[in-house]
User: Fold these one by one.
Assistant:
Number 1:
Amino acid sequence: MTGLSLYALTGAVLVGFGIYGLLAKRHLLRRVIAFNLIGSGLFVFFGASAARGETVDPVPQALIITGIVVALSASALAVGLIVAKARVSGRALLPEEDDDA
Amino acid sequence: MTLLLDAVLCVLLLGTALAAVLGRGVFRAIVFFIVYGLLLSVGWVRLEAVNVALAEAAIGAGLTGILLLTTYGKLTRVSAEAEPDDAGVNLPVALVSVAVAGALAWAWSVLPEPTRPRAELAEALPRAGVENPVTAVLLSFRAWDTLLESVVLLAALIGLWLLGRDEDWQQRLGVPQHARPGGIMTSFGRVLPPVGFLVGVYLVFIGADEPGGAFQGGTVLAAVGLVAALAGLIQPPRIGQWQWHAGLVLGPLVFLLAGVAGALSDSGFLGYPEAIAGTAILVIEAALAASIAVTLAFLVIGPPEKGHRE
């Protein structure tokens, strides 16, 4: 197994971890972290595919940088919504998943 | 030997990611996620993507880390940081995760070999005006993506500001920070910004030819402002100040005007005449970096809140 396959498989497993966290964990901040893990895992997978062959392909790298920046702005909006939700209800959980509500 | 290094790095990445998903308590999850981001930037160097490594360290680990930690602080104030008990394994979700990860692994095994050499790129690169191929892609070949991305940042900021409470609208941005005079944070707040400012400007400038660029440099500049604000050395601005509005739109505006100028000459929209391509890209990058710095800092610091000292 080459180093690149190692990173690609790591990326695949990271996506798996992220999906588990996004669906199985209820605290919304934890879900934002999990969502970032999914994106990050896909970037690693994509980046490993860009590094195959003799020279590295710069196009995927540029797209990954764009992706990292967009992920941050989406996360900032998401945590803004979480804080607003928590101030109204006192809980950072979705109402239909909140056992104590 | 290098394979061993890669293997250890991948195990550490998976370990910290798993701790961020399953570890007890949201605070611990955030800390592990920051460590994960720093490890991943080492991974990007191993994947020969130094430009991405800089972006990951600055944005993925740095700014996202501050964002998550300040959010945790805000949630603690309304005691919403506690997590319900999700300790048991959710079997259906675990199966879905394994299936998606397995499908990706399978996709990797059947991915076709890339066609070499990429003749079009090799032929176009000398005419782009910059040596760094990633910068050439971002600012020239796929400039549309980058232009729209800078608008996405603005849209996210407007969305975030709309979440501010009506009675706080006239207040300064973010929660008020109180740092002990002479404490660690205040000292850091004085030492780091000058160094960070230099590094940020250098990254923007060198990005034309070496790893770096508007996003990495702009993020470092945003971090400089955030450190100074967290140390209580500068007061964050208010929403209504026109100078900051100008800072927010400067980058997208210069980018757009350069694109229109290209369309009016015969280079086409977002194309630059070969003779001035290098200069044009540097000017756009400088304006973009300034706007990225302001936008990212505002995104991380959050909507206006009451309680600031005047």
Number 2:
Amino acid sequence: MTSTVTVNPTAAKAAISGLTLRYLVLAGLIVLASVGFSLANENFYSLVNIGILLRSIAVLFLVSMGMTFVMLTGGIDLSVGSNVAFAGGVGVITLTTTGSAPLGFLTAILAGMAIGTINGIFIGRLKLSAFMVTLATFALARGLALVIYDATSINVSDPTFLWLGGTSWGNIPVVIPFVFCVFVALSVLLYRTPFGRNVYAAGANFNTAFVLGRRPERSVVWIYALSGALAGLSAIVTVGRVSSGQPWSGLYLEFDAITAVILGGTSLFGGRGRLLGTILGVLLYGIIINGLVLTGTNPYLQSLIKGMILLGVVLLDSWTQRGKAA
Amino acid sequence: MNIGKILRERNIIVVTLVCCVIFFLISPRFLSVDNMSAISRQIVPIGLIALGQFFVIVSGNIDLSMGMASVFFAVLLGVFFGLTGGVGIGLLAVVVASLTMGGLIGVLVAKLKLPAFIVTLSALFMAQGLSGLVIPRGQQIFLMGGFFQFAGSQKIFGIYLSFLFLIGLCAAAYVVYNHTRIGAAIIAIGNSEENAKLAGINVDRVKIGIFMFSGLCSGFAGIMLSTRMGFVQPGLDGNGLLLDAIAAIIIGGTLIQGGRGTIGGALWGIAFIGIVNNALNLLNVEDVWHQVFKGVVILAALGVNWLLWQSKQSEAH
């Protein structure tokens, strides 16, 4: 938050090549991780498994892209996992009461956006710390999800509602091209619109952005609303994938998303990062997690490894940043 | 002091007392000695976590790991109890492990300038993983015998020993916070790290100390958790404890931007959470509503604190 908004051209060039280097390293690690797990489990490389893998991390892709916007402003959104359960609950209940899948889609996304907007108002307008506000909505959204579902899951059979998360074209799940479309749309939003420039400005230096009339407080509200809307979208995919709405879906999803985004090179302090990095980060992280599940690793060991990955990446980042500053 | 000022500065006391009256009118059993005594025992782990968290938040940070860490420490105590049949080594291990963990978090936050919420978020997951790894999967360890009986249910003058421990620790914290240079240093860091540094405060050392204390509080909370439950298992709801503790701190009027808060307020916040948790059970409110309620309470308290702070700022100008 302390760096200046004006960017000196050579520094910008260095930063881009730094990011390119990071993307190359990530791509290398993705190859390495997949080779490693394919040696451990011969099913890993089958086309079917790649389809399953991509489908299982589709939600992580969506949520992490929203998280990238949030973290570009120097914020954090701990509520997305709970929000997926809550928005899914609203969507499923709407579907079962009205029988209309489009209405279910709409209410799911609006419900996700509602939680996101609450976050945005508290963080952007009231200037309260993001982790505290989203910790409250983390509890609130999970609680609401439990209330909506009455703590049990609801089976869904409506083919339209399940289409996005459940259908495949051959070996390719429908959701993969869909995620790609969202990626393109969000890239346009981030790199080609004034809104996108405001995102970077708000993250690089909130006060300067304010003085320049970029209305960072307003951008922040919209960014959290966007993150919430993507959680709503993820809810639809989640329900489609398992053919039921579950009150505990999306548990710890926010943690996975934060790790993937940091892995993808987005700065914890805002203002620096790209969506492409997040895509690579999700791929690598997803392959690792998926591999751990496939090899039957103890879930508690998985938790430990996840925690160590996050801390390791953050440590590595701070170490390389330090090297650059010296 | 006019009524407006009382409402503004002592709002948590008013709210807590009003809640007590309402709960009493709905269910007269609420104010019985037995129930009050039960509440005093229930809030001990939450209270310990809240006390540790208080200093972290006043210094402008957060420790998200405290809930899961206390579950891990409870399990650790249980494992040592299972191995040795005694508690001495287990208690020592918990104290050493909790201080070490807090110290490590403190070093990462203070020396490497990593954001506390990320460091403690990864610590949360590591603690959760470790608590399941030190104990065979799906198992519980039952804790019986002298110490657990003593620490869990012994009373002095009708008051639970564990509650007296919490009060004693709060009293010590009160003295440190209000009457020593360490307390002043914590507040200074919460207000502005740069200014604290300019004033000659060893910011890094104070920060590491704060996280060591919050780690120790997690350790104590874990011990108290194990004595109250009578068994330990890795699946205990650590995050629920953390949320309750943070709610207590915010309700107690601590400014989450850092730099302001009182131990007395935190104690009232702890009391409020204890009373509400108890009343929700006593009034047979369905479990699913508890979390909704907590989320709303935290958001509302954040909003109210913000409004009060805002009005104070405009008064000052």
Number 3:
Amino acid sequence: MNNDNNTMKRRWLSLYVENKTGVLARISGLLSGKSYNIHSLTVGETEDHTVSRMTICLDADENTFEQIKKQFNRSVEVIKVIDFTNLSIRTKEVMFIKINGVTDKTRTEIFQMAEAFKFQVKDMDKNSVLIESCRTEIKNDSILNVIYDRFKNIEVVRGGPVAIESISMQDR
Amino acid sequence: MGKMTGNEFFVKALREEGVDKIFAYPGACVVDIFDELYKQNDVDLILPRHEQGLIHAAEGYARSTGRVGVCLVTSGPGATNLVTGIADANLDSVPLVCFTGQVPTGLIGNDTFQEVDIVGITRNITKYSMMVRDRKDLNKAIKEAFFIASSGRPGPVLVDLPKDVMAQSGSDEYPDSVNLRGYKPNTKVHDGQIKRAIKMIYKAKKPLFILGGGVKIAGAAEDMKKLMEATGIPAVTTIMGKGSVPTNHDLYFGNVGMHGCFAANNAVNNCDLLISIGTRFNDRITGKLGTFAPKAKIIHIDVDTASISKNVTVDVPLVGDAKEAIQKLLKASQEYDGESDMIPGWVEQLQEWKQQYPLYMNKKDKLTPKEIIDAINELYDEPIVTTDVGQHQMWTTQFFEIYGKRQLITSGGLGTMGYGLPAAIGAAIGNPGRDVIAVTGDGGFQMNSQELTTATINRLPVTVCIMNNGYLGMVRQWQDLFYDRAFAGTCLRRCKDCETAGCNELCAGRSDDCPPYVPDFVKLAEAYSAQGIRVTKADEIPEAFAKAKAKKDGPTVIEFLIEDEELVYPMIKPGGPITDLVLGE
């Protein structure tokens, strides 16, 4: 292997795949079978219901990543592979945070944070608050860090980023 | 448009694909398909004695004929017994279509009797695997399976057939074309890259061809010989590529890799341009990565984009069919209006190395493997030789001469023991009238020896040559060289008696007190109605082969009692650089 290409880096792929049983297993199996570690993988139907689109995010060096793309390209189920790593894209991730053990004082604090960090309070009762944040993955990371600093009793669900090529405005 | 059940259509599809042999083993979930096969005479049903033997036979058939090998087995254990063969075919690019029975769709997921998720199990070792969930998809699925298996880089395709889907009625129309939006194998060679390549070829001072199995698969051997002669550039091969140019050619210098010869490995080390065709630079070829062909730029021709720059970084990639690429290079070389910069002494240097350190084996008290392979070279015109895996395989790949129609079929990628005999059976079925010889070891032969029955009942004159040294010799060789002669689990004579006979410690070699060998291979052969011959001395070899040739209606097993501790040389230490070649005795 060429040693210049050994730097690990975060990479993004968008895959058009057949919307059929077993395709997700084939794709994730190909990655795990070759010991490639996925950071996130999201999948959903496209405008054509026979086609699904996957957004895959992983950490890999250049050579490994080239090999991953080739492996995907030759898979019968994969229709098209787009490397998003150096493209201008728009990406979002849905994140839910449920904060438990909330008091009147901390609830007010959460509403102030929502204002400042641009997430939304979507549901609550006297003990809990449910937050929804639809931002880029990096911004969600930051929001989560702020919440972690202040609250201990929380539940987090993250959807993984989805991405599409941008037209004139980049956001990643 | 007429109607047919899936089972009826299955047989029609085989006819449409021109399949005249199917390697099949029945069971509950495929009994209806067997019933349809029973009603017709176009497709011969070959019944081996184990599904692993079945699929290796299909591989031997496919590799010796260039046609798709077709397997049909039942669900559950029938399907799982194919797994090793599927992985083998995947690594060696063998076109197979494997049909597996499946429990009815309504029972899938219930841990039904003989249910396994075979599509899931084989997902990572097939070129493509699918379950037909609906009768209306069956026709297309079979067409696609044959297309995918045989196009691009060939490989195994698995089609899982639930019993209820096959019973349903549907269209009897076989599609005449395939349109898979995710699978468009690229065989067209890029002309610009050919130009770049030919320029580099003529500018190189020490160019070298390295040829892999892809040259043979593409049927490019003839053109390759022409290209080699037109350019005057010498060639070496991988084990899978051996025979892609005649081994007795002046410009051919042997196999590279772990047990390759000195001249070939040294040529790779010293060349300044390596033109590789149809090889994926497996670790057994390259040795320690980063030390392989250190002085060379690399041109890599392969039909599989994923094989390019996978293991070795390539300077000029050329994706496409090997035959087309070779023909285009040949044409470009004929039109090239410049002189070759190849230094005059390059080929002479290789010849010098070849003469200095030829492949050899000293004569011993007992038979040597070389004497056996030499006899095959001498006594047979155009044999198909298959092997198992281990020392005998390496000796065969070293000493077997391949030219004309001679063929070598060996499990190169997966290294599957038990491959030799069934592969020979498949080759014999596909090539009536040809001499087919399975060179095997006493270990590997026992992994599928039940297939002697298949050879007997199908009246196949296969000759099995067992190189019997009483050891799992290749592992024993590693133990001999790197594990202080601790022969753990490699002595095939070791038995309970060894513990009481005073050789309780891992024994360091044979003595006169060793227990007798089990089984007696000559008696075993006779039990299968095969001709059994034991050879202990070199002068008995010609007579044994003469007897084998005389038997036209069934198999012959020749047991050669060879030197116990013969080693395969030269050898590159596992994981070491290929400059570090141990020459041997």
Number 4:
Amino acid sequence: MAGNFLAAVGASVLNLCAEVGGILMLLFRVLICLLPPRFDLDETWRNLHKMGVRSVPIIVLTAFFTGGIMVIQAAVFVKKFGATSLVGWGAGYAVFREIGPMLLGLMFSGRVGSNNTAELGTMVVTEQIDGLRALSIDPVRYLIVPRVLSMIVMLFLLTILGDVVAIVGAALFGTVLADVSLASFWVSFSQNVHVADVTHGLIKAAVFGFIVALTSCHFGITVKGGAVGVGRAVNNAVVAAALGIVLSDYLLTYALP
Amino acid sequence: MIHCDGLSLQLTHRPVLSDVTWHIEAGSVWGIIGPPASGKSVLAKTLCGLFTPRQGRLTVDGVDLPGLPEPDRVKVRRKMGMLFQNNALFDFLRVRENVSFPLARQNPEMPHHELVARAQERLRAVGLSGSEEKWPSELSGGMKKRVGIARATICNAPVLIYDEPTAGLDPVTTSKIYDLLTDLRRKHASTVIAISSDIPALRRFVDHILFLHEGRIRYCGPESGLEACQDPVVYQFVRGQTEGPL
């Protein structure tokens, strides 16, 4: 009984080490392709469009209501203590530094990361990756590097867009639910939120994009076992990305100003 | 042209090829047959350098392929065109782009209009004129095979490997595909290796047969000598008997 338990724990640890090792190996190979940059521009452009432009509606929707939720939660206390001058600052601070990059990162992982894993996994199962290799094309250079770059750039840009929309949402919800005028919201926001708050969140967004990219690509290109394997890989990629986002968020919150 | 000497390969700790010794002369046409999971596709992929054998020697035109690092395998792979079992058409590219893809990669300087013209010419050769702008998902199984063949042959590589060129196709389409492959072989005098489970159709197409069973060669010789082979596995498989070692 105890032996079985230990064996299961050992197998899980070995499996975890293998996955982390695989991700680090992939990172190494991506870096080799980037120094100096040698990757496919057409494929990068296609991914920027697919991952970024097509994510705009869901990001806008998420961000708008995220800003609103921040104000809904605060509205009770704002009314109780008459702290209307803090609403703009509270919403901006929370959205820019934490809620914006975190929620958008998770949303991005669910929409783009899972799609990426499924796409790469299907390419493995249908021998498209072998097809590329048979044509002397390095799949890392042709498929992975453009995806990694696109995800980093696009999550960064989408977070900027999301931040703006979330603040607009917070201002509108504040006006309707907490009787905070737009002018009061703007004064509170502009006087208390600093550039460092914005950059703090944007650095996080870039790191989250990198994490989503690496995990989704790793689990995609290591798929084994047909359609069932693709499903398992998508699941693993989403879980790993979420874990990576939460852990790195914790570390970055300490490390960044 | 291609020489395998004592090739052995393991995948996930399981032997897939054992002591495969096989010599392919330029211009010859080989068929690889054998029961499922006997290592046929793995052998074909090993010849392209997609798998690295654990033991043995593999040379293509005198070049030791497994000894080359991945980036240096380019020159050897350019001598080969391969049709994969699942066709391996890139879903993110249209039919014309799929066909011209190897050409564009090998000749980055080639003008776009020439790439388009070559792809159209090759698609016409496989009977798919008018399908240039379709996506792979819009094609039937036979059409996908033909696009795969067009892509494998567009660079006029001296070695062509077809993995199950007629799998899942009706007899008429099968005959058409083999006629097409014969036509292409005659035009370019290429060396051909074809894997198929459709033994009668394959035997009409090839000069030589390699029979694999559990990663080992059971027969390697002229197609005409297959019937006379007394190996019990080959004997049973070729005659389609239910009684025997298989």
